[in-house]
Amino acid sequence: MRETFRPSPLVVFNFAICGAALVVALIWAMMLGKGWVSKLILNPAFIVCLVLAGFLVVLSLFYAYVRKDAFLARLLLALAIMQCAVFAGVSLTYLVPSARFPMMDQAFARFDSLLGFDFPAFVAWAHARDWVRDYAAAVYNYVTVSIAFVAMAYLAATRRIEEFEKLVSFIVLSAMLTIFVGMMLPAGSTFAYYQVPQAVEDALGTLTGAGYNVYYGRVRAGDLSVLEEGFRGMIAFPSFHTVLGLMSVLYLRSNPWLMAPVAILAALMIATTPLIGGHFLADILGGIAVSLVSYRLVERLAREPEPTLAYAAS
Question: Per-residue pLDDT tens for 53-83?
């Protein structure tokens, strides 16, 4: 017997996007100088990601051709794609600031004002409430990853492999769109723009305060030493926290009982993004736009025939 595994168009698309992103990241780092290749591309954490991705691909092939378990083969391949996307995505977020497009903080602040959103008043309101100070940072830091994990675990446990592949495709596509838009329309922290006192930042547990602008400025200037201080989120607009929150809701729509609490948690997390993530309202709306575009594109790509494990006599 001869076994052939045919990846779905979504999987092929994902590998193509991740492969192209890795090539772009490598070339870009080489153009910035050898230090960027050794300290960013060859960072031990990223090497672990690639090794793990390779291991998952090998396991996927094992289950495709030896154990003949199509579900596990596809699941493992999707997880391998996620590892590649993490490596390529984080690398690019540190490279695209060097393009040095004009900062958009003033334009976003004006846009927020037109919508009636007063960031300093919102911060003052939050700072005056103990429960916001006590829980906002925890919601922002832990809910995002938790609800994304719930969505993935649910789809895997219920063997909804088509939806799982769509979710992974959504992550890949939305991440690349976020990076591209963030490169073209870079923005800093609202706390820096509005000159919010450091004491208020500390009380709220803000992660992206005025210090973020200093860090981002060093990356933008090509200062390699920032990599020694650890990795941080480098894209303010669009808000990727918003993207992941909406993703978790969209891919749990088949289970209203699970989707409802996740939707509430996602809404709470998105509400904390201005306070803890230092985002403009425009960043959140940009994240919503990226989510909707990514979802529609993934659904369109998924209309192609599904993968199968086909067996033919030799």
Answer: 899 999 998 988 888 888 898 899 999 998 8
Output the CA–CA distances (angstroms, integers) from residue 52 to 77, 87, 171, 231, 256, in the order listed: 11, 11, 18, 20, 34
> Which among 15, 186, 10, 202 has a CA at the least distance from the CA of 105?
186
Break the chain into its structural domains and give their ranges.
Answer: 2-305
What is the pLDDT, as a whole number, of residue 304? 61
Left if phi > 0, otherwise alpha if psi is -120 to 50, otherwise beta: which for 197?
A: beta
The whole-number average pLDDT for the span 216-245 is 85
